[in-house]
Each structure stands twice: as structure tokens, then as C-alpha cells.
TrEMBL record:
Gene Ontology BP terms: carbohydrate metabolic process
Keyword Ubl conjugation applies: no
Boundaries of every SLH domain copy: 287-350, 407-470
GO molecular function: hydrolase activity, acting on carbon-nitrogen (but not peptide) bonds
Organism: Calorimonas adulescens
Signal peptide location: none
Phylogenetic lineage: Bacteria, Bacillati, Bacillota, Clostridia, Thermoanaerobacterales
NodB homology domain: residues covered: 92-354
Cellular compartment(s): Secreted
Main location: secreted
One Gene Ontology term, aspect cellular component: extracellular region
Domain of life of the organism encoding this protein: Bacteria
Protein's name in the database: Polysaccharide deacetylase family protein
This protein's UniProt keywords: Repeat, Signal
Record bears the keyword Signal: yes
Length: 473
């Protein structure tokens, strides 16, 4: 029996696979939300660090949700071109930025972004780079030139500036201020305005020059340390060749906004992808629900999103997924044939209710050719809702485990149809299907979109499944 996962994701048709709209949700004048991150860690985050640190798994979930929500990450050139009014952007544009240049951006963010086909910008504090003459260690570890070069060459991440060595506070004789924001005391003496502008301009230029020398690409963006700048710093940045600057002021960017005072949206370690998009909507003045809001607290959310990322499921044009809607037999056959790459063999179908011009004819033919829907006899019933025992029977050939569970512990085993008994024993043993409470398997219950996604995802997650590794991880 031919069983494999198709290398090309075949998207289904009709109601079960209605495509998301091309235009941005929240219609209106195009805007660019710019997200601001700092550090990523693999482990628990201290409450005091949640404002600047995101857990690795949380970051992955955030990026996956943004991808599913239809956002398209853009580059520095895309952003500048759009702000200057001469470059169109893809639907739902978004820019992802990291400040400081921590090595965790290379270790965690880079692989996730690369896998998802997304891109980002890292604004590095150049003096924190190992090997620099003025290098002073600042925990956590920062990127090396080799790492910056690698991720820049990949096209996934743009390396930009967070100054050479202005990421600190200093006294102006009255209070402590960010070192780039005004005149400060040096060796106990307040510098003159000319000394201030010379110090800042030299730093801006040195940072730009060093990145360009070691990374090999022109630097166009500078992110203010602590987000604080002024008209003088904007002028100095322009003079040394920067074309855009970012602050930490909350908001989104539109054409006509000051590109040298770019607004961003800070991402916290406690936030989900849904939270991020809600923050974007709030900043942009967009009303309405965020994409797939009906999955946010759903028990099957993670499995559904995995299936969507793989291209096997899609949502509806109204931004919902409808996880608890029942699945028809035609939809079940369409999804299974797509996921497992089944193909028709050209033979006539025995079903008197599956016409050749039907949208589900090919997937039903594919499932029949693979021998997994023969139990339907002469009538397939394409519009009838699929049951738990039917789905288990269709998936049974793809379950690698040869073990069989004792179903006598369930109260309703006598309700299982004869054709599905062995498949149910096999599926229960492999953990593909579980009881629904009160000691029942409920074999005749309708299968929802969420349940079908979870069962298929569990089959794909089998360690022994032949093509699992090449498919996604």
C-alpha cells in the first residue's frame, strides 16, 4: 500500500479549505507594525525580566501565529522604500526587530524565522561584540562577527546599529540621562554642545562602519539606546548615512510619519501571538476580532496550528477556524488524501453517489485506491458527517504501532461497528484516539475539525513515521 507524505502541500477545496483573504484584516491605509524584542531564553523567565525577555517556545508560538494570521515580514529596504513612498508592500506587512544583539537571537530566533520563511532585524551594540578593542562583557552574551555575517548572508536577518558604545546612562550634572540624548559629564566636567555632537556623531559613524566592514552590507537603520533621541541626534544620524531610526514609542508606522523617530510595539514575555495582534490592532485603530480568535483558548489549538502551518488546513474568510464544526466524509477523504499523498489509480469507484464532476471525486478515488474506505460498500455518502470510528478506520493503515488495546474497559464497545473494531484497538493503543469521559469511546459521535486535526497530527507525530522528519522538523 502506498503511504507517504506529499512533498508539495495539496490544499483542499470547498468549505473545508476556504482560503484567507489577500487583503489586510482591518482595511484602511497601509501601516507597518514594528515589533521590538530583546533577549530569548530556553527556560523560565523571572517576572522582573518579562518586559525584555521571551521564552524560546513562546517566541516560536508568537511567530507561528503571526504566520498563520497572514502577516508578511519585511526587510529594512522594504520598510524604508515604503516610508519614502516608492515601494509597495505585501499584504499585512510587519517588521520584527531585536535590540542589543544578544547571541540568543542567533541561537533561537534565527532558526525559527528561517524555518517559517520569515525575516527580522537585529540592532547590535557594536562594542559588545567579542574582539572589539573596547569590548566589555555584558551578560547575556552578545553576537560574534561570524554569527552576524552568517545570518546576514542568509537573507533572514538584517544587521543594523544600536550605536557603538552609547548604551548607558550618565550624569548631565542634574540627573542621569541616556548617553546619546544630551550633554553629559566626562571626567567630572560637563561637555560642551560641540563636544556632545562630536562624541555622538563619531559613535554613530563608528558603529555603522564596523558593521559594514565585518558583515559586508550597508547599514541604514539606527535604534536609539533606551529609545531616546532628539532633533540633534536625528540630524547627526542623517549626516553619517542612516536612513531610518527607531524609538520605543508605542505605535505603528504610516507613510508621512517621521522615519527618524520610528514607533514600535514592545513584545513582552507573557504575551501570546493573539496578544501581539491585539496590540497591533489597538495601535492602528483597527476594530474587530484577531484572526482565529476561536482557537485562542481551544483545547486543540496547538495541533490545529501545526496542521495549518503544514498547509493541510485553512481557516474561513471571516477570520475563524470553527474548530467544533463537524466534518463530512468528503472532507475527511480530502484531508487524508492530501496529508498522506494518496493518488487515484484510474479504476472506477463502486460508489453510486460520487460523481466525476464532484469537487471531492479525486480525493475519494485516492482513498479508495489505497484501500482505506472500502467499508462503505456501494454508497459513500459524501455529505454525511464522519464519525469517530470512520476516521479511525481511515487512519488505521498509517498507524505504525502493531499493538492492540483491550477495549473492554470502555462501556460502549458494543456500539463499535464490526469494520472498525480492529482499527479502534490499534488507535487506542497508539494514543491516536482516547475516551470522551465516563468510560466511553463514543464511536458513533461526529468528528469535529479540531478532533480530525488532532488525530492526524498524532499519527504524524509517531516517531516511527517514515517521512515525519523531512516534512517539518
Amino acid at each position: 500500500m502506498k503511504r507517504y507524505i506529499s512533498e508539495v502541500f495539496i490544499l483542499f477545496v470547498f468549505i473545508f479549505v476556504m482560503a484567507l483573504p489577500e487583503s489586510a484584516w482591518g482595511a484602511g491605509k497601509t501601516y507597518v507594525p514594528v515589533l521590538m524584542y530583546h533577549n530569548i531564553i530556553d527556560g523560565a523567565i523571572k517576572p522582573s525580566e518579562a518586559g525584555v525577555t521571551v521564552n524560546y517556545e513562546r517566541f516560536m508560538e508568537q511567530m507561528e501565529y503571526l504566520k498563520l494570521a497572514g502577516y508578511n515580514t519585511i526587510s529594512v529596504d522594504d520598510y524604508i522604500g515604503f516610508m519614502e513612498g516608492n515601494k509597495p508592500l505585501p499584504p499585512n506587512p510587519i517588521m520584527i526587530t531585536f535590540d542589543d544583539g544578544y547571541e540568543s537571537n542567533y541561537k533561537y530566533a534565527y532558526p525559527i524565522l528561517k524555518k517559517l520563511g520569515m525575516r527580522a532585524v537585529i540592532n547590535v551594540i557594536v562594542s559588545e561584540t567579542k574582539g572589539e578593542p573596547n569590548y566589555h562583557y555584558w551578560d547575556p552574551t552578545h553576537l560574534t562577527w561570524e554569527e552576524m555575517k552568517e545570518i546576514s548572508d542568509s537573507g533572514v536577518i538584517d544587521i543594523e546599529s544600536h550605536t557603538y558604545d552609547l548604551h548607558y546612562y550618565a550624569s548631565n550634572g542634574k540627573k542621569k540621562i541616556p548617553a546619546a540624548s544630551g550633554q553629559i559629564e566626562i571626567n567630572g566636567k560637563l561637555e560642551s554642545f560641540d563636544e556632545y555632537t562630536t562624541r555622538v556623531k563619531n559613535d554613530f559613524k563608528k558603529s555603522k562602519d564596523m558593521i559594514e566592514k565585518n558583515v559586508g552590507k550597508r547599514v541604514k537603520v539606527l535604534s536609539y539606546p533606551y529609545g531616546v533621541g532628539n532633533s540633534t541626534t536625528k540630524k547627526l544620524a542623517r549626516e553619517v548615512g542612516y536612513e531610518a531610526m527607531f524609538t520605543i514609542k508605542e505605535g505603528v508606522m504610516r507613510q508621512g510619519d517621521d522615519i527618524m523617530s520610528g514607533k514600535r510595539i514592545k513584545v513582552k514575555g507573557t504575551e501570546t501571538g493573539f496578544d501581539i495582534v491585539r496590540n497591533i490592532y489597538r495601535a492602528a485603530g483597527v476594530k474587530g476580532n484577531v484572526p482565529f480568535y476561536d482557537l485562542e483558548k481551544h483545547w486543540a489549538s496547538n495541533d490545529i496550528m501545526e496542521m495549518m502551518l503544514k498547509g493541510y488546513m485553512k481557516g474561513y474568510p471571516d477570520k475563524t477556524f470553527r474548530p467544533d464544526s463537524p466534518v463530512t466524509r468528503a472532507e475527511m477523504a480530502t484531508m487524508v488524501s492530501s496529508v498522506f499523498g494518496l493518488k487515484p489509480d484510474g479504476k472506477a469507484l463502486p460508489f453510486n453517489d460520487v460523481m466525476k464532476n464532484a469537487w471531492y471525486y479525486v480525493p475519494v478515488s485516492s482513498c479508495y485506491a489505497d484501500g482505506i474506505i472500502g467499508f462503505y460498500g456501494n454508497s459513500f455518502g459524501p455529505d454525511i458527517k464522519a464519525t469517530r470510528e470512520e476516521v479511525v478506520s481511515v487512519l488505521s493503515p498509517f498507524i505504525k504501532s502493531g499493538q492492540s488495546a483491550d477495549l473492554s474497559i470502555y462501556k460502549d464497545t458494543d456500539e463499535i461497528s464490526p469494520f472498525a473494531v480492529h482499527a479502534m484497538e490499534k488507535a487506542v493503543a497508539a494514543g491516536i484516539i482516547k475516551g470522551k469521559g465516563e468510560g466511553r469511546l463514543s464511536p458513533k459521535d461526529d468528528v469535529t475539525r479540531a478532533e480530525l486535526a488532532v488525530m492526524i497530527e498524532r499519527v504524524l507525530n509517531q516517531q516511527s513515521y517514515d517521512n515525519r522528519q523531512s516534512l517539518w522538523e
